[in-house]
Design brief:
4 helices, 0% strand, mainly alpha, 121 residues
Length: 121
């Protein structure tokens, strides 16, 4: 039972093994993420998004004119109005979310001040 295997002997020599691995990983330099390295990916994503939305718009014009028998001008105006409404609703929602975040953060700070001042009494 006193006989140790080769890996156990090496671990005993290195001080247990687990702590040694943790020290080595903490000494490694962390990689920088983000910055200009991600710019090509962001641009490629935007370009693909534009192609997809343009193709979808063209398909919807075809559907409205062929299947629903809308005149071309009315179909185009319908899609433009729909796109504008969707964009303004999204922007309004983003604005309202920002207001909620600001209000909730100010409420939190007031609550902390109230709790701290009640402790002082």
């Amino acid at each position: 039972m006193d006989k140790k295997t080769e890996p156990e002997e090496k671990m005993a020599e290195n001080g247990g093994g687990e702590n040694h691995e943790i020290e080595n990983t903490s000494k490694k330099k962390k990689k920088d993420v983000g910055g200009m390295k991600t710019m090509p990916f962001i641009l490629a994503s935007e370009i693909c998004d534009r192609f997809a939305s343009t193709g979808s718009h063209a398909n919807m014009i075809t559907y409205l004119t062929n299947e629903l028998n809308m005149p071309l001008v009315k179909a185009s105006n319908t899609l433009t109005n729909f796109g504008g409404t969707a964009t303004s609703c999204r922007n309004t929602q983003l604005y309202l979310n920002q207001l909620e975040i600001k209000e909730s953060s100010s409420c939190r700070s007031e609550a902390v001040i109230t709790v701290e001042s009640s402790r002082d009494r």
